[in-house]
Design goal:
about 375 residues, alpha/beta, Aspartate Aminotransferase, domain 2, Aspartate Aminotransferase, domain 1, 2 domains, 7-stranded mixed β-sheet, 13 helices, about 15% strand, binds pyridoxal-5'-phosphate
Length: about 375
């Protein structure tokens, strides 16, 4: 749950401050307040990039990031077969072709599979860090060698890092989400970060009907060079974002500490396999992933956790929203996928996901709750045999 757990007085105070001004303006491009701009500046400084542009959701953020990077109809965009559906929807909304590939053992894009999927039409690779880092050295080198744009949809991984560098600052552009399950929560919201002025400008234009935001011009006279949508963030949401951002280091360190305690206590269990990492020290605390024998054992484990008052997160209960193998409604629009048994395209990923458990690690956990989670995992592991 992360930031959503800590919503409270500070968020309210930011909203009250917005309403206490002489002229209240809730629209990001109106005169006067500019909570959105302050949020963008503070976020860019925290993560360590030159530019940040806040938008209405994480889905909007990856949509704008792709548009900002120049993804156009017919371009092939390689991404992972395990992701929430949003980046694949965004690729498709731009008329580009999503090319999901199999996972590696860390549950991320497998650089070897990415290499195999490259064609002359490939324009970009979207890495999707799931609370930890993909093999970014290999992916960066491959993209450099093959002239591809590396994009990070780091919606799930704000605060994670790879070899000391924050995720979201490694590719050409990255996106984040502030929905209810993410590190920071603003109701709805997302942000794009980049060091590339051209990508930033184009992403910002796309989020605002193509407005170029040229200084000194009234909005109605502002020109455009490409099309866009309304994906703007409101000042109220940005005010909440400012209060949440001030809590980010606490959120990250508390959930990391909770996860560490749980992991240490279950490391010895024989019949669960904790997921390996490309950089464990940089991983987030938010979610714990482990594998069991097979699908049946995963379902049994999930039922056991539920009985003990702990739900799973994404795997196994929401697999259908996070696995390309069941997205005939979207991928079926493309000739290359139409009529195929999609599951058969990513068999390794399907087996991994169906035999995995993801457990949410809250920020606020007292010692007794941590003990209960540990006991539930230990007894679940005994039960599946
Ligand atoms: C990788 C990824 N991208 C984008 C999104 C969409 O974010 P939002 O719910 O803010 O639209 C999510 C949400 O879970 C996600 O996991």
């Amino acid at each position: 749950m992360a930031g959503a757990e800590l919503i409270g007085r500070e968020e309210l105070a930011e909203i009250q401050e917005l309403f206490s001004r002489e002229k209240v303006n809730l629209y990001r491009y109106g005169g006067g307040n500019y909570k959105t701009r302050e949020f963008e500046e503070k976020f860019a400084a925290w993560i360590g990039v030159k530019y940040a542009h806040a938008v209405s959701s994480g889905t909007a953020a990856i949509h704008c990031a792709l548009a900002g990077a120049g993804i156009a109809p017919g371009d092939e965009v390689i991404t992972t077969a395990w992701t929430f559906i949003a980046p694949v929807e965004a690729i498709s909304a731009l008329g580009a072709v999503p090319v999901p590939v199999e996972l590696d053992e860390t549950y991320h894009l497998d650089p070897l599979e990415v290499e195999k999927a490259i064609t002359p039409a490939t324009k970009a690779v979207v890495a999707i860090p799931m609370w930890a880092s993909p093999k970014m050295d290999e992916l960066s080198a491959l993209c450099r060698e093959r002239g591809l744009i590396l994009i990070e949809d780091a919606a799930q991984a704000l605060g994670a890092s790879y070899k000391g560098q924050k995720l979201g600052t490694i590719g050409s552009v990255a996106s984040f989400s502030f929905d209810a399950g993410k590190t920071l929560h603003t109701g709805e919201g997302g942000i794009i970060v980049t060091n590339d002025k051209e990508i930033y400008d184009r992403a910002a234009e796309f989020s605002d009907h193509g407005h170029m935001h040229l200084p000194g011009l009234p909005r109605g006279k502002d020109p455009r060079r490409s099309k866009g949508l309304n994906l703007r963030l409101s000042e109220v949401t940005a005010a909440i974002g400012l209060a949440q951002l001030a809590k980010i280091d606490t959120i990250l360190s508390m959930s990391r500490e909770n996860k560490k305690k749980i992991k240490e206590a279950i490391r010895h269990l024989d019949n669960i396999i904790l997921r390996p990492f490309s950089d464990e020290a940089g991983s987030q605390g938010d979610t714990l992933i482990f594998r069991v024998r097979d699908r049946e054992a995963a379902l049994q484990f999930e039922a056991h956790l539920t009985e003990h008052g702990f739900g799973t997160k994404i795997l196994p209960e929401a697999l259908d929203w996070h696995y390309a193998g069941v997205w005939g409604h979207l991928l079926g629009e493309y000739d290359r996928y139409r009529g195929l048994d999609l599951e058969a395209l990513w068999p390794k990923t399907g087996i991994m996901l169906r035999s995995s458990i993801c457990l949410n690690i809250p920020v606020l956990m007292d010692g007794e709750t941590i003990e209960r989670v540990i006991n539930a995992i230990v007894s679940g592991a005994e039960k599946i045999g």
